[in-house]
Amino acid sequence: MSSELSSQSRRSEVYGGLKISIETLVNAVEISLVPGLEGIVTTVKSIMDIIEGTKHNKQACYDIGIKVTKLIDVIHTELKDRDDFDTDKGTRMRVDALESSLSGVPRKLSDLAQDSAFRRAINCVSDASLIQDLNIEIDECIHKFMLGTSLSTGMDAKYLRDEAVRTRITEGLDTGGWRSDRRCLSGTRKRYIARIWAWVRSSDEPRLCWLNGVAGSGKSSISHELVAMLHAKRRPYSCFFFRHDDAPLALSAVTLLAYGLSFVSGLRELIVQALERYNNGNSTIEEQFMALIVTPLQEFASICPSSTIVLVIDGVDECPDDIRPSFLAAIRSGLPHLPSIVKVFLSSRAQDDLRGVIETLQPLKKISLAVGADKDDGDVERFLQHELQTICKVAGLENTWTASQIEKDAAALASKASGLFQCAQLSSWLLVNRPRPREIIARISSVEMRATPEGNLDALYTEALKIALPAVADDKDLASLYRRVLGTVMAAKQPLTVSTICELLEPGGNDGDVNVDGAIRSLVENLGSVLVLRRTRGGAITVRTAHSSFCDFVTSRERCPSTWFIDLHHASVQLGSHCFSLMETNLRRDICGLRNPSLTNKDVTPEMISRHITTGLRYACTYAFVHISGDSGNLHMLEAFLMEKLLEWLEVMSLLKLLDAALELLQHTLADLDQQNPFTSSVEILQDAIRFVGQFGNILNNSALHTYFSALPFTPQGTALYRVYSARYQNIPCITLGFHEAWPEELCTIRNLGGNHSTPRRLAFSADSSEPRLVLATPMHLITASPLTGVQLEKYRFGARGSEVNGGMPIALACQPAYLASITSGLLLKTVDSRIPKETQLSFPYSGDRLPSSPLPMQVTCATFNQDVNVLLVGCRDGRIQLWRLHNSSWEPDSNIHPHSHSSAVHCMATASDLLASVSQRELKIGPYDHSNTPDGGRETFRLSTRWLAEAHDVANDSWEVRLSFAGTSAAAWACAISSHSSAPVNHRIYLLTADDRREKKVLASTSLSNPVYALSLDASVLTVVCDDVLRRWSIAPYRLLERSNLLSIDSTGLDRFPVISPDCRLFAFCDEEVVHVWDLIHPPRGRLGHTPSIKAAGVILTSNCYIVKAGKRQLLSRVRDEGTSEDVVQLGDHNIEHLAVSSDESKLATLSFYKGKTGHGLLEVADLKSKRRSTTTWPIELHETFTDWDICTMEFSATNKHIAIVFFVSNVSYICACDLESGSLRWKQLPGKTRPLAARCWKGEELIVVRTTELWKVDLETAEGSRHELRRRDPFKMATAYASFTETGGSCLLEITSRLWNQPPWYSVWNADTVTPVQTKTDRTVAHLEVPQKKQSFGNWVLDNMGERLCCIPEEYCSKWGVKTQCSISHDRLAILNEDGALLVINFHPMMEYLRVLS
Question: Which pTM was predicted?
């Protein structure tokens, strides 16, 4: 009993101490100003209450400990390490104390739970109900904490597919969020803040608030203050602050707004779903805003209609010029669709484009607050007093700088500020770290006043630069450095770190003894009044201009004195030159030091990339071409780069996963050069580079090293790129026979499509052409690929495996970022949402007697998706048009009959913007497809009945067909191209109508056997038609023919397999059997078409020479020289030759042929290579007729040339046939076991060594007796590739056995073939095997060395005609391949192998 009382006493003591420590902590943190700690206090108190009521429950204490541990993680990661909160020493200490105190809670609770008396007390209450109530209370408590502080319920950054955004978040870079050091000084801007906060709190206020004013008037500080108040008051919000010098940040504005919303309780999952579905970089800003902001908020409003969410968007006028129109369009179109619980706060200068957008939002009702010089309220002077007092205390000048003097100085500076906070801020920055700040104040006070506040700001900037760099006027070197550094900061496409600036500028400015790095850092620090330096989590210091008004001033010739003027265009071009200089210096082959062609990009870690590709080099590779765009002064540097560093640049872009961006840069650069000087060598090499990336995109995407080992060797040898870089990199494989001379006309090909040559397929381009995607549909698959490089991105399978048909062929197909959709005539909808394939059987809604509730055969005639892929329209045989909408991941039908419905069968439909064009047998209709979201004034539907439609047959008649292309931006700006096709007789016609001219205009009439392929550009300005291998382009307004050119090498008979033209009319794609061909219609290849100077043969074998069997009326054995000529050696028999063998001394050659098929008789023929007469030594080989498909593994001469051994593999059994070349007698030996022989060699005498995966056989060819030797008990794994080779060295024979699983490290061993024992010896790397996997790869087949390492990938274009009759021979580091068409390919690997031997 006493023991139990003692335990209870200890329990009370532990709990009492715990309670006291937490209550002390509560009192301590109440005085903290760190946002969010108030929520922690509330949570800690709640936990104390829970412990008080449930201290007799062991499980409850453990649960509480877990919850508190999570809170500690939140505090540590979200308060201690974030720059958004105050970082003064006292605050840090309080946060550390809070963390330290809370860290003891779980341990103390655990001690309490382990008490024996405590465990027995559990039985006094109901465990189940107590634990359930406890967990509910804790979860509510945690939820309240997270909602109140907005600290850690945001989604994981892994859901952000925008790599740039992920990098900013994980590395602590600027993410457009608010900062506490940018808030208004306490006691200032009260009038504005009170009005804005009243707007936030009131449900009767308008949903839009626009704060506007001149540059430097303090708008951003008010925005930061608003967000800080929302944060402290636990109001759900998201914010974004534009920066004029950060275009990549502006591109991610919508994504970052969505990321901020994910911290709002209840919105996280909705945002994650939206990001997974839409955010992959292809959608426009307007589409992103609707998908990532509007749609999740609409769904949230239906769940929490009483919540109010505030979106704060500051500095819209600072959005870069090339992005701002798109962002304003997103605001204009998206804000009216936001639910009523959302309020939007915008802050900007009152520029015309912004004012126009605000005026278009008038139906929303808004409040407009203007802030400027005439609305100071004394805030500027109060701000200056505070700043001067702080500077005085930090500098320790209290004795010499009195309070009254500070008041006078603040008043003097305020008079110069003209009510602009930026003037006041600039003045205070000029005083920081100055030993005599009052002298600076005197200089500022002496600045001559100007007529306008903006003029006064310009004068102050001029004086600030004079104070920062007083020696510029007399020091030309300093003036030059100033222009270079500040020009680099302003011209950069993204904020640069100090080290990056030094890295970019040093190659062009290092003058020996001058410490450029130190000079740059010193200059940046001296310009601290106009530049902002901020340290990232990684330790790097980013440099940015302090305010956009400084950029406006220093880049204006009219406003800025010539001493300080920065020519922004010149600075951008100079930065481009520095980028090229840096790449010239730092780019090198194998930049990450892999030294092994077997490694792929997946083997290169981010740490390796960061270590070898510096931030400066990464910036140079990404933006060098952008900076010199349109400038003719860098042609020489560009040409030198293209001739020396192009492939090394492509290697880096492959490692950075920027191949598509690289291709776009090359194409833009080519377009610029075409306008400036189209006949330079740079143009030719650029054209080759574009084809290089398109043809070998899959290989480059897989492994950057194979830019040299696989892509360059198979580049057409007549191109400038091959001539230049094959001479530069001579240690690569060289194709001596079977190479191409010039590029094919197609840009790229897409392979590994699924199905076979007869599988029906349909193609579609994505609507966004900035990063185009091509989607291909079959009855079983949906596949996405890059039409620029041919890289297959995703492949999705539908239906059960083994089934050949799954719902029929799609009649409509659409592609959006992370979302694919197709629909069949049976209304089977196949979608891929967030990489998850799904099948949905749609059905018509019941509508009287018009249509039943389920589809009947032949009812559906056509279908189309809108551009956003959230509306589906289906046309029917009875004329009805049915609409489905995508809502909450499900497709819901419209219960009403669509106003576009016809009285006869609907032939085809197409959408553009919010319009639908549909064609029936009698009429064409054009109007809005969704009348529910269209104002009454825009619901007019245009109808047209034409003569050629009246002549059409019924849709069931296959002899007549109508197709349609439709494009437009509004009801007043559209174009429609309609084609009719008749097969009896053959007749094709294309008609054109526009919103301005609705009279049908015939633009093409043809009697081609294939249907014309045509498309309208998205803006309805250009019509592109491909017919009879001819490309034609018409301008719509005014109507005229722009271009007519021939498209060579296109098989026009294959154009009926659903060819498509991209929305920008640049790319043309069609499917030919199992390959999709993509043509570039804007930049077609120049010069002659590619051809292959090949030698046709029936057999090939490599020794020190290359021997082929020429097929024809007479079969001749020929010796082929490297230059492609051949010398006939001897005439052979007339039967189909299946295998060749050459004796070790190369005096004899044996051929094995069959004259009754592989189930009949074989004929062995031996030719004397030293005699040109036909040999008469032939021996018949009788094969067992019960066996079929004899597989010849190898054929070998004995060491004495007395016997020939043929190794067969048939029906999982191995046979050896030994033929005596003197008597013609045959001896057979069957080897037990079911594994296929890998290799055979007659090493000495008449002994044949046969190797299989686990064993070795020695067979005497004279007696056909053999002995078995075990190599290993079992396979190391079920291999996809296994092979063996023999090497004669030092009077002995070494056996090398290699086996590997696809994409797995190889298993390699070396054996003494005489003693059959493993040996530890190092052998040279040699070419040993051609890996042809059973499963087709999209980029080609690999050549392997004797150790199982990959050497070279033979592109799929060379492998496409390989089959069971393909022959392969390897010898002396050369590879010869003969495909089923008899085309010969010979590759010399000797230079590459010598290079790899040196590396190893």
Answer: 0.75
